[in-house]
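Wait, can you check?
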Amino acid sequence: AEEKPPIAMNLVHPRPVACRTVMQAIADALLVERKVTSYPLPLVPFSKWLEKLESNAKDLSKERIPAIKLLNFMRAIARSDIATRASGEMDIEVAGMASCIRVTAVTERVSPTMKELKSLSSADAGQWVDYWVAAGMFQ
């Protein structure tokens, strides 16, 4: 008999990559490959980035900086980032997902795509940046 699909699945990447690795690939794509910026972008802790966002949110509109709409969500991520850094765990996914249970066996069993999914790479980051450039994000 055919197996019934599960009621719910864990939709996390089955082969996670450290946040710093992904962010560095994006920074490299912005500078080197797409020339969106002429200087290297520093990688800073998420909490420091959030402080800067909150500071700018006081003077700018949600239309100018869409991330302002997500400040409460971003604050939760920052708390997770601070706790993770305090623990010494630096090989972490975006938003502190290392603390999330990564059980993907069921998802991989019902989804051949998830089962065969490769880890994110610098090529993926480059494609994201290409899309952002094409969408006019940096104008």
Observations:
- The chain has a mean pLDDT of 81.
- Residues 31 and 39 are 7 Å apart (CA to CA).
- The radius of gyration is 18 Å.
